[in-house]
Write a structure and sequence with these properties.
Helix content: over 70%
Structural class: mainly alpha
Number of helices: 4
CATH superfamily: 23S rRNA-intervening sequence
CATH topology: de novo design (two linked rop proteins)
Number of strands: 0
Distance between the termini: 31 Å
Number of domains: 1
C-alpha cells in the first residue's frame, strides 16, 4: 500500500537527505552534539511535515505544513554552515547537499502555492 505523500518526489528526496544526515551524525560528538541533535530534528521535520500537509484537505493547512517543511530545509542548510565553521563538515559535502536542500525548498514552495 502506498500513501499519497509517498508518491511525491519531494518526499522521497527528503528521505534521501535524512538518510545522509543519519550517516553523518554518527561521527558528531562533544562540542558538535547540539548541532547534531538540532540537525536530526530539522531533517526529520521535512518529510514528517510533507506527509502531514499532504493529508490535509484545506489549502491553508496544506500550505502551512509545506511552509514548515521548507523552513526546516533552510534550517538544515544553516546547520550545515555551522558544521563547516566548526570543521565537522567539509565544503564539498556542504555545497552538494545545499543544492539538494534548495531543490526540496523549491518543490515545497510550489506545493504550498508560493512558486
Amino acid at each position: 500500500m502506498t500513501l499519497g505523500h509517498e508518491k511525491l518526489d519531494v518526499y522521497r528526496l527528503s528521505l534521501d537527505y535524512v538518510s545522509w544526515v543519519y550517516g553523518k551524525v554518527k561521527n558528531l560528538n562533544g562540542v558538535h552534539r547540539s548541532a547534531r541533535d538540532q540537525w536530526l530534528r530539522a531533517s526529520q521535520s521535512i518529510p514528517l511535515n510533507i506527509a502531514e500537509g499532504n493529508g490535509k484537505t484545506a489549502k491553508a493547512d496544506r500550505r502551512r505544513y509545506f511552509e514548515i517543511a521548507r523552513g526546516s530545509a533552510l534550517e538544515c542548510a544553516a546547520i550545515q554552515d555551522v558544521l563547516v565553521a566548526g570543521k565537522a563538515l567539509d565544503e564539498t559535502q556542504n555545497y552538494h547537499h545545499k543544492i539538494e536542500l534548495d531543490r526540496i525548498a523549491i518543490m515545497l514552495s510550489k506545493l504550498g502555492g508560493r512558486g
